[in-house]
Amino acid sequence: MATRPVTLTVNGRSVIAEVEDRTLLVHLLREHLGLTGTHIGCETSHCGACTVDLDGRSVKSCTLFAVQAEGAEILTVEGLAAPDGTLHALQEGFSAMHGLQCGFCTPGMLVRAYRLLQENPDPSEEEIRRGISGNLCRCTGYQNIVKAIRWAAATLQGRELAEAAE
Fold this sequence. Notes:
Elements: E1 3-10, E2 13-20, H1 25-32, E3 51-54, E4 57-60, E5 73-75, H2 89-96, H3 106-119, H4 125-131, H5 143-156
Parallel strand pairs: 1-5
Antiparallel strand pairs: 1-2, 3-4, 3-5
Helix pairs in contact: 2-5
């Protein structure tokens, strides 16, 4: 099958990849670029495990062809940490507040939460729940995920969150 070049910026790095027209963005990220943090879950856009940030919005990369992302700026879970390895406040929050169990949904949840905090730096619990409603977690019951996002929001604003994880 014929291929074509796709040029994008992924986690701040310019990349060019040769892909078939039918290649999904999630497969470009995982198989061509080796960024396996973006998970393949349901492959129907229902679970959100494949969520990435594309040009400032959350998208489910299992439903987008790589060629549709031509010229885009993409952030994956690997791009959340600083270049020196310092974790993003969301990553710290998920650890501190026990916001993960099996971890399968966590990359997509972190990237979606990142965009949520970009759009609303101090969301209420209800706004967080609505904001992550397109990302499913089958293990946690969401309580500690919400606390982790609230912890990160407070940390990013220089405040402390007094709640403990359950």
